[in-house]
Amino acid sequence: MSNMNYAELMQPVIDFLGCETPAAWLEEALNHLPLLMQDHANCEKKAAGTAMNLMFRYSFFIDLQVKLAQLVREEMLHYEQVLEFMAKRGQSWKAVSAGRYAGGLRKEIRTYEPEALIDVLVIGAFVEARSCERFYALAPLVDEELGRYYRYLLKSESRHFEDYLALAMDVAKTAKMKDPEEDIQRCIVHIREVEKQLILSPDDTFRFHSGVPARVASSDSEISS
Length: 225
Known about the structure:
Number of strands: 2
Distance between the termini: 45 Å
CATH architecture: Up-down Bundle
Helix content: over 70%
Number of helices: 9
């Protein structure tokens, strides 16, 4: 796929997100590639686990079952692939604590149904879109082999975010919500702003979905003051 085609593939993802990844995060990522790969592996495993949990919790949504089963298979395949990359590069598995990103988004989930499920699906769309955007931003900066793998991931990750949004709409319509499109759009606008703040604000912990490295943000603040 040419650079132009990658750009076309990414445009809906960029349009969906509220911001692009800051240069300071990309620089930090290049300085901590082993940690980035470890957390990437964790993210793939967690994504599969989240999809599996939704399958069990909402087994009465048939369309949800099929799409999520496909998602689980793809996420686990990516998990295995990242583990292979790590092994190939002599990188051993290490436990890594979670960053603030997923927890920060989960705080926005409403406590009643079907809105809670819709929020989970919209958040899933943002997580997948951000992952896709970061792979795209990293691909030309890392070594050729890793960059090729990140570009390979773009197609599936961009489809995942659209799948989550389609599922949210299906759930809203199945539940016969009064105005499903308006409710989902309102949810998207709200989660977009929360996600944007998590990406652009100072973050003490570097992870695949972390914000601006706190030490960089602090230095910038000192310079501008």
